Amino acid sequence: MKIKYLTAGESHGPELTAIVEGIPSNFEVTKEYIDKFLLRRQKTLGSGGRMNIEKDQVLITSGVVNKLTTGGPIALKIINQDWQNWKDKEIEPYVVPRPGHADLVGTLKYNHDDIRLTLERASARETAIRCAVGAIAHQILSQLNIQLVGFVSSIGGQSFNPTNITDITSFKNLIEQSDVSCPDKNAADLMIKEIKDARKKKDTLGGAITCVAINYPPGCGSYVQFDRKLDAKISSSMISVQSVKAVEIGNGFEASKKYGTEVQDQIKLDNNKIKRISNNLGGFEGGMSTGEPIMVTSYLKPISTTLTPIKSVDLHSGKETETIYERSDTCAVPRAVPIFEGVLSLDLLNSLIEKTGGDSKEEIAKRVDNLQNYNIEDFELSNKKWTMGYENE
Ligand code: EPS
Predict the structure, then answer these.
(1) 329 CB under 6 A from ligand 1?
(2) What's the pLDDT at 170?
(3) CA-wise closest residue to 37 among 243, 297, 336
């Protein structure tokens, strides 16, 4: 791993913090770019009261000087505005775990005296700082001519599955203008209705977010060892985002139901450029990027805090009971898009730097440009008979 990062902070504590290590020098990284990601993460449709309290903005206190990365560790923080409401508060005991949240197992595992000690750190509030870290990688990728965009591809039973994304800029504008981060107006209207219905029913909803990266060079990741497969690494990162229960690369779910001849992305030549007739495998073969658009969909379960009580047990009295409602979102999917863009950007940037080597933008950019422009003449096959010799036989 070239890029490493850690986050810290409790949901209702004073602040969230991150340290990011391994970012090369001389890339532009700005507060403005990161704050735009944070603003998108605060989208209101489907959100609960907390998003009216927070005004997330990043503070960059190390590793970026005069808007350029130095190559040193980057330190970030976001102040929790809600801390003002919590710092002198007498906190009610929290003894009934919400099924689906970390409450029950976390309290058991860490032998906490109150469930809140678990939920404070397990909370998806942590995604605010992860989103800020990811925005750095996203901004750097854009300087290497790699564009990455995420959108909502389903909410509840309503979905939107575009077949081909060519004009990523106009797509991006449509996503940003949509209340549910879905570029298709008809699908978006149906999704909005789903969220409103769920709220009326005092329930919550999940959905899916698809991220697409264009111009990502071939040959990042590797088939030679299980832990070097880039699609596997990405899947693990996506699952680590709160609420995610499944990850799909390309059209993975549909592909599992079809014939091989229908699924493989067949290869053709366009002058001396190698092209594919489809992208069902989402830009990956053998754990390596192919140069085709990277396509990753993350599936989020509905939020655990439901207005309608559900069965649980009181961990203090030891009796069966029902959950007690605390303020929460109905559906966090519309505002989660920049988190996934950021998390995917981090894996893509990391793997790219592993492939190119280099410590500065100047070293890396040249090598990336070469990789992005490969063609049939870059192969050096001898086309001669050979034997597979091992000296110890
Ligand atoms: C969350 C519960 C809610 C969400 C929170 C995630 O917070 P609160 O308990 O303060 O109402 O709003 O998400 C955020 C605070 C955020 O910034 O995304 C949970 O339990 O996971």
Answers:
(1) yes
(2) 81
(3) 336
Ligand 1 in reach of 128 Cβ (< 6 A): yes
Q: Determine whether the shortest distance from the Cβ of 335 to ligand 1 is under 6 A.
A: no
CA of 50 to the centre of ligand 1 (A): 6
pLDDT given for residue 171 in this prediction: 86
Nearest by Cα to 221 from 230, 232, 212, 209: 230
Residue 317 lies in a domain: yes
Residue 227 inside a domain? The answer is yes
Q: Which atom of ligand 1 is nearest to the CA of 127?
A: 18
pLDDT along the chain (393 residues), means of 10: 95 98 98 98 87 96 98 98 96 96 98 98 98 98 97 97 78 92 96 96 96 97 98 98 98 97 97 95 98 97 93 98 89 97 98 97 97 95 97 85
Question: CATH no. for residue 117?
Answer: 3.60.150.10
At 168 the pLDDT is 81
Q: pTM higher than 0.85 for the full model? A: yes
3-state helix vs strand vs coil in the chain, percent to 5: 35, 20, 45
The pLDDT of residue 349 is 98
Owning domain of residue 242:
4-376
- Total residues belonging to the chain: 393
What is the per-residue pLDDT for 7? 98
Helix orientation angle between 361-372 and 333-356, rounded to the nearest 10 degrees: 90
Q: Answer whether residue 383 is part of any domain.
A: no
Query: From the CA atom positions of the chain, what is the Rg in Å?
Result: 23
Distances 34 to 37, 58, 102, 137, 191 between C-alpha atoms, Å: 5, 7, 28, 10, 27
Smallest CA separation from ligand 1 atom 21, residue: 123
| Number of structural domains the chain divides into | 1
Residue 98: DSSP 8-state: P
**Structure tokens of 39?**
């603003």
Closest by alpha carbon to 213, among 311, 119, 341, 316? 341
Hey, how many other C-beta atoms are within 10 angstroms of the C-beta on 126?
21
Residue with the two structure tokens 């596997």: 232
Q: Is residue 390 part of a domain?
A: no
What DSSP element (H or E) covers 154? strand 147-155
> Residue of the nearest CA to atom 4 in ligand 1?
328
Q: 335 CA to middle of ligand 1, Å?
A: 12
Nearest to 131 by CA among 54, 66, 69: 54
Specify which residues 211 forms β-bridges with: 150, 296
